[in-house]
From TrEMBL, chains A, B:
SUPFAM superfamilies: PhoU-like (SSF109755)
Keyword Iron-sulfur in annotation: no
Protein name: Phosphate-specific transport system accessory protein PhoU
GO biological process, one term: phosphate ion transport
Assembly behavior: Homodimer.
Domain of life: Bacteria
Domain PhoU: 22-108, 125-209
InterPro entries noted in UniProt: PhoU, PhoU-like_sf, PhoU_dom
Length: 228, 228
């Protein structure tokens, strides 16, 4: 009987883990599509990202409900409890990732044209690739309970911050050269900031994975060069 | 015996509610101090806001732990469960409010001087006052389980969005007039965006209060003029 209960908890947890995996894949896809829409000035694709954000919201509510039911039914402790709480936290971060993707999509529509100078778009693409890579790696780290991979993601956030800062400076120069660029540049600046924040959510998830597996917080102050 | 358990749950919930009240007051204070530091170019006060943000983080962890313990021990259902989940959600929003306050404080330090033209600072002050008012009202609505007050907060978010948009336009003009203003204006623009986002968290809390009391989501699409 005790064995039966243990197995059931594991099954519930496994389902919760797959739900997180599915949600993570979906949020990642929306973010990727938002970037494609931005780089190719594609308002239709941007509109699709905006409308699909609701699906991610529903996924989050579903995961939260399952996790709470699990806590109420099984009263998990120690690692089991940490796994269940991790699901709630990670679904919160993923909801924010999709939301930031939606913001990028809205700005893509507002900008109409993204005919920026080539180096700027290369910078945005590079930043977005780093962000997507961080998302992918941290979701893998979660699926495999791989703390080393999570620590890697956590450390790599400083690279995103550095690329963001250099992009910020380039946008500034561009705006100063010709004030007519300012309005569009600010949209792009906010897009870059949104990507940088997606990187922060990947880092949050890395911290959650570390805590879930070890029961300890990652102690060092997060290496971050973007303080603003 | 059953009576005893019911009373205990109510007591646990009361403690959770006071913890949210305390956290809300603290987050509100940090946000207020961040604004004062910004308006008076006070780097010492800004530094204090930055260092105190950790206290809010600790408060959130404490509330989350208490709520999870409550779910595991009492297996609450219906309104009791909604109240417990509301505590988790609201503490998440309050943590973000303090974090956004910290961002404003960091930019205050980065800007060094806030000798902007008077109308701009009046605009920032107005925006911040609206944000503070929304925070105060929604925390009262939570404490009193007042859905009408929560609905009021929810509706008033459009006013914050409108003030933000007008401030955004003014900043844009200022930047176009003299490119030397651009760098500082962008800091101020991000500060304004942070205040606008604090307003969004007040609206989130209003939605949580509504759901907690009624068991229904606020259905209308949130009236929002800031789409980007």
């Amino acid at each position: 009987m005790a064995q039966h209960i243990v197995t059931s908890f594991d099954e519930d947890l496994k389902e919760l883990n797959s739900a997180i995996g599915a949600m993570g894949g979906y949020a990642e896809e929306l973010f990727g599509n938002a970037i494609t829409a931005l780089l190719h000035s594609d308002p239709d694709m941007a509109q699709e990202v905006i409308s699909k954000d609701r699906i991610v919201d529903a996924m989050q509510r579903d995961i939260e409900e399952r996790a709470v039911l699990l806590i109420a039914r099984r009263q998990p402790v120690a690692q089991d409890l940490r796994e269940t709480m991790a699901a709630i936290r990670i679904s919160g971060d993923l909801e924010r990732v999709a939301d930031l993707g939606k913001n990028i999509a809205r700005r893509t529509i507002a900008m109409e044209s993204t005919a920026f100078r080539q180096t700027l778009m290369v910078g945005v693409e590079h930043l977005a690739q780093l962000g997507l890579q961080q998302m992918k790696q941290v979701l893998d780290a979660y699926a495999l309970r791989d703390t080393a991979a999570a620590a890697e993601v956590w450390k790599n956030d400083s690279e995103i911050d550095a690329v963001y800062t250099s992009l910020f400076r380039e946008l500034l120069t561009y705006m100063m050269e010709d004030p007519r660029n300012i309005s569009r540049c600010i949209h792009l600046l906010f897009c870059a900031k949104n990507i940088e924040r997606i990187g922060d959510h990947a880092t949050n998830i890395a911290e959650t994975v570390h805590y879930m597996v070890t029961g300890q917080q990652i102690e060092e102050e997060r290496a971050s060069s973007t303080r603003v």
